């Protein structure tokens, strides 16, 4: 490895620059599977950096499962399947659009949760992925100790114990929040809805990633807001350049993004882009609604840092929940709304009041337990192995020309099918065999993603799931063959 891995103009830490360049070489196959990496000493000498910088870069690559350490032999390129190309950056139109979502999103979610379904349709880990016993014990204890609260009316922004626990949790995101500014909600979607209500009026334009989570589009539709989709890269997330151009040429009231492990791309914005984004919204004096629901699932620490950590003017409204990482059944979320805190609090009071107090107390305790970090690490490792297995199966059994993302954490894969294959037709064909997937049409206001599917692999996982993934590939191949025959006839 003689190439220079450090860009003179970059403001990123040296170890990240080295890690990022090496990651690209591994993903593109320049560094092949099983190949020995340069020794720490060798690479440090070549790049003119300290050995500890190289060790940090190698640890980052290890966390990303791109290299593995072999005792007394050094580091080797891991055998993670990487031969599938990734989808290209999206190119949505420059006009905002009215949102007209049908019933398909709700149908997919309903079917995805059915017990008899082999499901890849939901973006939530299955119950067995959580530490159920710890949650049950903690909740029981909270009810025993605070039974009086069950019959008292909860008011205000939520229990102070929970708001403090959220503020402590936000330190992992690089943010120092004050518990007084945190409002507890009944999930991230409520947090986002409240933020949008605080900063927009019907008819306003909201910029978001393309593709984006269909739940966001449903919220926009219910509030009569227009969607402006911004080009988004499958690994680096929303294009800040394209967003800047949009903000300079049309009136946008808010930006809604998931900078870490976006849904469905699984993209993570690089740190300098996060900083630019915070500066951009401040310069335009508009709100950035930042969804950090998946940050704890990112494989590397630096990817967990929130855009909010760069916010010096209160323009970032931070929204999170513990429904993907701790206990979806508690249905608790939170929001810190920056300069719109007082407005948001009023809307929340009127809209839905406070949450169940004992649940908030249990949440605060769960977050402060030593076992919490260990449970998160376990969850990250389990879903990482799943994603590897699923990508391997897709490489083997989906039609030639298929593209798939390689997310740096989480359990969502975004798959582009070749030959203009219609994902809704594939969804319907799969349902005939009790297999549920989410068709790409759901994730945009336009039919741009009609040949994409989202596969969630964090749910229940038995022997039937790998077989079902192969079957989806076979059905897609059959549909392609039929189309070819029909066109030839
Ligand atoms: C990006 C994103 N935000 C929010 C949610 C839902 O959050 P909650 O269940 O906390 O309301 C989802 C669910 O899939 C999601 O993907």
TrEMBL record:
The record places domain HTH gntR-type at 12-80
The cross-references to Pfam families, in alphabetical order and at most eight, read: Aminotran_1_2, GntR
Q: What keywords tag this UniProt record?
A: DNA-binding, Pyridoxal phosphate, Transcription, Transcription regulation
- Coiled-coil regions listed: none
Q: Give the highest taxon in the source lineage.
A: Bacteria
Q: Which SMART domains does this one have?
A: HTH_GNTR
Gene Ontology molecular function, alphabetical: DNA binding; DNA-binding transcription factor activity; pyridoxal phosphate binding
Tell me its family. In the C-terminal section; belongs to the class-I pyridoxal-phosphate-dependent aminotransferase family.
The UniProt entry, under PANTHER family, shows: HTH-TYPE TRANSCRIPTIONAL REGULATORY PROTEIN GABR, TRANSCRIPTIONAL REGULATORY PROTEIN
The molecule here is called DNA-binding transcriptional MocR family regulator
Species of the source: Roseateles oligotrophus
Taxonomic lineage? Bacteria, Pseudomonadati, Pseudomonadota, Betaproteobacteria, Burkholderiales
């Amino acid at each position: 490895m003689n190439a220079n891995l450090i860009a003179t103009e970059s403001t990123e830490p040296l170890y990240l620059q080295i890690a990022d360049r090496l990651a690209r070489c591994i993903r593109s196959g320049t560094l092949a599977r099983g190949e020995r990496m340069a020794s720490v000493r060798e690479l440090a000498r070549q790049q003119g950096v300290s050995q500890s910088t190289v060790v940090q870069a190698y640890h980052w690559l290890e966390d990303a499962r791109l290299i593995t350490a072999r005792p007394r032999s050094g580091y080797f390129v891991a055998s993670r399947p990487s031969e599938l190309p990734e989808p290209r950056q999206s190119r949505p139109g420059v006009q905002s659009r009215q949102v007209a979502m049908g019933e398909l999103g709700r149908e997919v979610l309903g079917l995805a949760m059915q017990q008899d379904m082999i499901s890849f349709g939901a973006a939530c880990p299955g119950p067995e992925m959580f530490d159920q016993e710890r949650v049950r014990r903690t909740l029981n204890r909270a009810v025993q100790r605070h039974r009086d609260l069950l019959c008292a009316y909860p008011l205000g922004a939520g229990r102070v114990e929970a708001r403090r626990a959220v503020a402590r949790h936000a330190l992992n995101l690089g943010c120092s929040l004050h518990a007084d500014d945190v409002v507890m909600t009944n999930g991230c979607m409520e947090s986002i809805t409240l933020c949008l209500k605080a900063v927009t009026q019907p008819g306003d334009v909201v910029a978001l990633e393309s593709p984006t989570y269909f739940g966001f589009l449903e919220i926009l539709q219910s509030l009569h807001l227009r969607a402006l989709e911004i080009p988004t890269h499958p690994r680096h997330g929303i294009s800040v350049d394209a967003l800047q151009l949009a903000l300079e040429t049309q009136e946008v009231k808010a930006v809604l993004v998931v900078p870490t492990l976006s849904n469905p791309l699984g993209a993570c914005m690089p740190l300098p882009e996060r900083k630019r984004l915070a500066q951009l919204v401040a310069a335009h004096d508009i709100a950035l609604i930042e969804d950090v629901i998946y940050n704890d699932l990112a494989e590397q620490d630096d990817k967990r840092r929130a855009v909010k950590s760069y916010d010096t003017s209160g323009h970032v409204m931070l929204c999170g929940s513990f429904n993907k990482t701790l206990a979806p059944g508690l249905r608790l979320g939170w929001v810190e709304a920056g300069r719109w805190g007082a407005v948001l609090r009023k809307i929340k009071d009127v809209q839905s009041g406070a949450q169940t107090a004992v649940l908030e107390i249990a949440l605060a305790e769960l977050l402060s337990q030593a076992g919490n970090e260990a449970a998160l690490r376990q969850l990250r490792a389990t879903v990482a192995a799943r994603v590897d297995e699923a990508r391997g199966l897709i490489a083997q059994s989906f039609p030639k020309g298929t593209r798939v993302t390689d997310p740096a954490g989480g359990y969502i894969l975004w798959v582009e099918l070749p030959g203009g294959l219609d994902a809704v037709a594939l969804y319907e064909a799969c349902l005939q065999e009790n297999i549920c997937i989410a068709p790409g049409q759901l994730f945009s206001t336009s039919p741009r993603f009609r040949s994409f599917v989202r596969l969630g692999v964090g749910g229940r996982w038995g022997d039937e799931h790998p077989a079902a993934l192969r079957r989806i590939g076979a059905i897609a191949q059959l549909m392609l063959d039929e189309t070819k025959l029909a066109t030839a006839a």
